[in-house]
Design a protein that fits this description.
The complex is a heterodimer of chains A (217) and B (166). By secondary structure, chain A is an alpha+beta fold. Chain A has two helices and ten strands, in the order H-H-E-E-E-E-E-E-E-E-E-E. In chain A, strand 1 and strand 2 form a beta hairpin. Chain B is rod-shaped and about 100 Å long. Chain B has one domain. Classes of the chains: A alpha+beta (217), B alpha+beta (166).
Chain lengths: 217, 166
């Protein structure tokens, strides 16, 4: 008995013979399953891509802000932490001596005169943006109006003057560590459907950096 | 010569795949599918590792910046050290900063106090004297963290060289 020959003869289809209806239905079933699986994979990948894009969009502006603040603190002569209200006189108020050196604003002075060359960063609690403006031609925000440089920043106290141990100081000193903290809350999946509890609807992001100004002249 | 009836011929022309063929095709399909899925998983894992590593590098830089801000006046008197306000606040030493307050900036779901926000880091700051004349010290900041998927320990390092305040 030659089994191989027999199997080969069984597998032979007559020339010109078509598939049966059952064969076609099974083939279509398998093909549909595979196609559905691929489509599901594509949808999942799109969802992951959207999640990643949301994260990146939230943190990119924050990181750019961090870089910008770091460069300007390095270039500054005097760095002050305080408060700033754009709708109430638009003046910077240094954190009072004897109280925690923290606030929503950071003023960087490029000379010893605070009124001549300065750059201010501040967080606006209404718009949840971090803005910057300057009266100095030496900066990229020369005589500019308030420029939003970070969005969705929810914490009012963004700037802290700390000592080398990470403790927020209670008086102004000329060798502080400027701690910048930006906290974001952003919709996790902007094009998705929120569930009943909406527990996973928002993501939390936090960006921190610490910069030591250069030594005094 | 064996007799082949008409029914037998019809059955043979409509014959399906053999069991061996089905098994081999399933094996090949499984290998390809598992390769694709493994690729997705590896890409996701690398993204996770990169985000944590970047955050750790940022943390190491912060530790170095903090040490650079320490007061160091070699000509001050008396030269007591190692406390805030001294003339030499951070002399040659090893400082360890760790605990639940030392959290890496990794985007995560939910509130930072919850259990799914647990990317902790330990920061080792080491100060060594390079030169006495002129005054030069090296600041080495190591951010040590554990990759939660594998349990492996990694270290990101930032090194600065500083001189005295005066």
């Amino acid at each position: 008995m030659n089994l191989a020959t027999n199997i080969k003869s069984v597998r032979m289809r007559e020339p010109g013979a078509a598939f049966t209806l059952v064969e076609m239905m099974i083939t279509m079933l398998i093909f549909s399953t595979v196609v559905l699986a691929i489509i599901g994979l594509q949808l999942f990948a799109m969802r992951v891509s959207t999640l990643g894009a949301t994260m990146l969009s939230a943190t990119t502006s924050g990181r750019q802000t961090m870089n910008d603040i770091r460069d300007n603190i390095r270039a500054g002569k005097v760095v002050l932490v305080g408060t700033f209200n754009a709708t109430n006189g638009a003046t910077f108020a240094q954190a009072p001596l004897g109280s925690l050196q923290e606030g929503n604003a950071l003023e960087i002075e490029y000379t010893n005169a605070a009124d001549t060359n300065f750059l201010i960063y501040y967080q606006d609690p209404t718009s949840t943006n971090v803005y910057s403006f300057s009266n100095s031609a030496a900066t990229s925000y020369a005589n500019s109006p308030f420029v939003p440089i970070a969005h969705f920043v929810t914490n009012y106290y963004c700037f802290f003057a700390e000592n080398y141990q990470g403790t927020v100081q209670t008086n102004y000193v000329n060798n502080p560590v400027i701690h910048v903290m930006l906290q974001f809350y952003q919709w996790q999946y902007p094009i998705g459907i929120i569930g009943g509890s909406a527990a996973n609807s928002f993501n939390y992001y936090s960006l921190n950096t610490r910069i030591t100004p250069r030594d005094n002249d | 010569m064996p007799h082949i009836s008409a029914n037998t011929v019809k059955h043979k022309t409509a014959g399906g795949f053999t069991l061996a063929e089905i098994l081999i095709s399933l094996l090949v399909f499984s290998l390809v599918s598992s390769g694709i899925i493994y690729g997705y998983v590896q890409a996701n894992r690398m993204v996770q590792w990169s985000s944590i590593s970047l955050a750790a590098q940022s943390y190491a830089s912060q530790g170095a910046e903090q040490a650079r801000a320490a007061n160091w006046n070699p000509h001050g008197y008396p030269m007591t050290s190692n406390f805030p306000g001294a003339f030499d606040e951070l002399p040659d030493t090893n400082e360890v900063f760790s605990g639940t307050n030392y959290v890496l900036d990794v985007p995560s779901k939910g509130f930072p106090g919850s259990s799914d926000f647990a990317f902790y880091v330990t920061n080792y700051v080491t100060i060594t004297t390079i030169s006495v004349n002129p005054y030069v010290r090296q600041i080495r900041s190591d951010a040590v963290w554990q990759f939660y998927l594998t349990g492996q320990i990694y270290t990101n390092t930032s090194i600065l060289v500083r001189t005295s305040n005066q």
